[in-house]
Every structure is written in structure tokens, then in C-alpha cells.
Automatic annotation (TrEMBL):
Residues 54-76 are annotated as: Disordered. CDD domains: CYP107-like. The lineage of its organism: Bacteria, Bacillati, Actinomycetota, Actinomycetes, Kitasatosporales. It comes from Streptomyces spirodelae. This is Cytochrome P450. Belongs to the cytochrome P450 family.
Length: 411
């Protein structure tokens, strides 16, 4: 079997996933952290597992937890920052209640109204490097765009957005960011958000509230129920956390895939020039399928014994659904290893499936489509400025993306 989890694997995990899909589609595997988990790699099993109510999101169901698994299966720092009650850690009925409340504030209409601002942000970032004729597209484009976008949407004042840029840089170990680990950045973000929510609640009480997402979260009610201040802070945080590195990777992996497939890139470039939004939307879905930002869905734990792809999974055992493997399953997709921006009926699992299906998908689509279209429009002769084997990948367990993407173009 090709090696799992070494540095070559991060650069191209797909041969190892093809082997697993074929020979051991549900396989118990020791992860780099030492935790053992079932890896699920076939499309049909993955889809079943994502929606199976016997697989809980609550880490309390992790059998190893009290022995030695503590702290190894969540967001670093989330325990100490009191962030455990976010959507990706809870099951119904709590999940149903919180998701219903957040959906009242984070609406497709709010996202659609934000479109012109995302375009301005993308244009502004390109303006900052266009005259140079070269850039690192991760550091200067894919990384800042989602962080400024979500900050503005949440209602973080402009003067404080640089702090988020810094904390996000610490989380991704961006060049030039202060050292100090993810845990510290998480705690600072959490502290800031708690304070901001407190301030916005007071403004709303004085009827001076703004029309931003945090005010929407405070205001949202369902049958007379509201989010508590702690729930609102955990929610704002998970919107930032879930919507940040994912979108960085969508823009980074997507641009890289286009630069490696000139024929497909030409198809998209033409569509952008002609304003063919249908093709642009389909292209971004295919880029998500082909080399998506989320390699594995977040943790699940068996609450009782179940059979998955013919394997017995015991109570307390963790399950990781490998979206990147499922989305290249030949049993589901014709020519799965080919990038085909005009692929039809593309039911990829890049945003998950079932009750935890990505809440931010409308915003992710808006950002992905805007970022790629603006880039191809503004820098039509964009080309890679490094050999593919010189590029380094950030191979965390859940996410997969480039550390940097050097490019050249006519200034
Ligand atoms: C959940 C992917 C962007 C917020 C998820 C899940 C996936 C995913 C696979 C399900 C995880 C699981 O079942 O374990 C993506 C991708 C994105 C993206 C590929 C970008 C291309 C965003 C954005 C936001 C966001 C921009 C918000 C601003 C969330 C939230 C959840 C979630 C809150 C948890 C939903 C729940 O548990 O009910 N996302 N996401 N995501 N995503 Fe995204």
C-alpha cells in the first residue's frame, strides 16, 4: 500500500486513496496523532456514514477520550476557550435548535447582498500586487480574501480586522506571523468575539444595532428562543473557523488545478469573458470535487455498534469520512481523476452531506466563484512560477491546501 500521512502523501494523496477504496474501503488506521480511527473511502459508504445518526459528533462519545485521546480530536484550544458547543461538536436536538437559529441570520439573501463587496475585496487585493508581475497567491490573495470577507459579514470593525488577519496567520503558520500556536490564536479570537457580542447586544438594546451577522445572531429567535451569549460567541467563532482555511484552500487548490490544466483553464477563461455564470458555478463545483479543501469530514464517534462497508465498528470508535477519496470513486464519477469543468450531475461530497452539510456553502460558492473569475479576468496570462514538486502542501488531517503558490503574469 502507498504510504499514508508522510510529506509525499500531502502532495498527492490520491494513489493511496485509490488503493484503500479498492482493497480496504473501511480501514482502521493509526493517525499521526496516535489516535486510531476508521477511514471510509468509498462514495456510497461515505454518504451513508455522513448521515448515520449512530455516528455522533460529540467528542464525549470517543472511547479513548478519558485514557489518552484527550485534546487530539478537536480544534486546538477549544476546551479552554469554552467553545465546545459549536455545530460540529453536537447532535440533535441541540444541533437542530442551534442550526435553526443561525439559519435565520445567515441567510442566502444576506450572502447574495454581499456579492459586490466580495468583488471589491478581490479587486483590491489584486491591485496591491498587479504592478509587480509576480505574487504568492496564497499569501496575498487566497488567505486574506476569506478572512476580510467573513470579518465584514460578521460586523468586525475595520480597525480590528488586522488582528484577525494576524490570528488567522498564526493558525495557518503563514510567513511573517507571530509564533505561538493555534491554541493562543483561538483564545484571542474567542475573547474578542465575546466582547464584540456584548457590545453589539448593548447597541441593539439602544436600537442602534447594525445590519451585520453578529447582530443577526443576537436578534434571531425561534419560538421565543434566542442564542445565549456563549452560544452566539461559539457560533461566530465556528463561522470564522469553518469558513476560513476551507475557502483559502478552495481558491488555492482551485487556481493550482486550473494552472495545471491549460485546456480547462481556457474553457473557464472564455466563460468568464462571456459572463457565463452557469459554467463558472459548475467549474467551482468540479474544482471542489477534484481537489477539495476538506480532505476528511470532521470527527464522528460510534454511539453503538454498527456495520459500515462490511466492517464492524464498535461503540466509542472514531470514524473519519475521507471526502477526497469518495469524490474520486469510479463507482460514482466517470473518469474521476480527470478535471472536467463541464461535468454534469456532479453530486460531490465536498460540502459534506446530511444534517451537518456545510452551512456556509452559499458564501463559499460566492467567494470561490468571485475569486477565480476576478483573477482570470484581471491577470489573463497568469502562470505558475515554480515546478509542481517545489510546492509544499499543508497536510493537516482534515484540510489540504498549498502553503504558497508563486505565480507570474504581465504587470
Ligand atoms: C460544515 C466544507 C466554507 C461554515 C462543513 C462540512 C464540510 C464543509 C465538508 C461538514 C463537515 C462534517 O460533516 O464533518 C466546506 C468547504 C468550504 C466551506 C469545502 C469552502 C469551499 C464554509 C464557510 C462557512 C462554513 C465560508 C461559513 C462562513 C460551516 C459550518 C459548518 C460547516 C458552520 C457546520 C455545519 C453543521 O454542523 O451543521 N463545511 N465549508 N463553511 N461549514 Fe463549511
Amino acid at each position: 500500500m502507498p504510504p499514508l500521512f508522510d510529506w509525499r502523501f500531502a502532495a498527492d494523496p490520491y494513489p493511496a486513496y485509490a488503493w484503500l477504496r479498492e482493497h480496504a474501503p473501511v480501514r482502521r488506521t493509526r493517525l499521526p496523532s496516535g489516535v486510531e480511527a476508521w477511514l471510509v473511502t468509498r462514495y456510497a459508504d461515505a454518504r451513508q456514514a455522513l448521515a448515520d445518526p449512530r455516528l455522533s459528533k460529540n467528542p464525549h462519545h470517543h472511547g479513548e477520550q478519558s485514557a489518552h485521546g484527550k485534546g487530539k480530536v478537536g480544534i486546538p484550544g477549544e476546551r479552554s476557550a469554552n467553545l465546545m458547543t459549536h455545530l460540529l461538536n453536537i447532535d440533535p436536538p441541540d444541533h437542530t435548535r442551534l442550526r435553526r437559529l443561525v439559519s435565520k441570520a445567515f441567510t442566502p439573501r444576506r450572502v447574495a447582498a454581499f456579492a459586490p463587496r466580495v468583488r471589491e475585496l478581490a479587486d483590491g487585493l489584486i491591485d496591491s500586487f498587479a504592478a509587480r508581475g509576480e505574487a504568492d497567491l496564497i499569501h496575498e490573495y487566497a488567505f486574506p480574501l476569506p478572512i476580510y470577507a467573513i470579518c465584514e459579514m460578521l460586523g468586525v470593525p475595520r480597525e480590528d480586522q488586522e488582528d484577525f488577519h494576524t490570528w488567522a496567520g498564526m493558525m495557518l503558520h503563514q510567513p511573517g506571523s507571530p509564533r505561538g500556536g493555534v491554541g493562543r490564536a483561538v483564545k484571542r479570537m474567542r475573547g474578542y468575539l465575546a466582547e464584540l457580542i456584548h457590545r453589539k447586544r448593548a447597541e441593539l438594546a439602544r436600537e442602534q444595532g447594525a445590519d451585520d451577522l453578529i447582530s443577526g445572531l443576537i436578534h434571531a429567535s425561534d419560538h421565543g428562543e434566542h442564542l445565549t451569549e456563549n452560544e452566539a460567541a461559539a457560533m461566530a467563532f465556528i463561522l470564522l473557523f469553518a469558513g476560513f482555511e476551507t475557502t483559502v484552500n478552495l481558491i488555492g487548490n482551485g487556481t493550482y488545478a486550473l494552472l495545471r490544466h491549460p485546456g480547462q483553464r481556457a474553457v473557464l477563461q472564455r466563460a468568464v469573458a462571456e459572463g457565463d455564470e452557469g459554467l463558472l458555478a459548475g467549474a467551482v463545483e468540479e474544482l471542489l470535487r477534484y481537489d477539495g479543501p476538506v480532505e476528511m469530514a470532521t470527527w464522528r464517534f460510534a454511539t453503538r455498534e454498527l456495520t459500515l462497508g462490511g466492517q464492524l465498528v464498535r461503540e466509542g470508535e472514531p470514524v473519519l469520512v475521507v471526502l477526497a477519496a469518495a469524490d474520486r470513486d469510479p463507482a460514482k464519477f466517470a473518469e474521476p481523476d480527470a478535471l472536467d469543468l463541464t461535468r454534469r450531475d456532479n453530486q460531490h461530497l465536498g460540502y459534506g452531506h446530511g444534517i451537518h452539510y456545510c452551512l456556509g456553502a452559499p458564501l463559499a460558492r460566492l467567494e470561490g466563484q468571485t475569486a477565480l473569475a476576478t483573477l482570470l479576468h484581471r491577470l489573463p496570462d497568469l502562470r505558475l512560477a515554480a515546478a509542481p514538486d517545489e510546492l509544499r502542501w499543508r497536510g493537516g488531517l482534515i484540510m489540504r491546501g498549498l502553503r504558497s503558490l508563486p505565480v507570474e503574469f504581465t504587470a
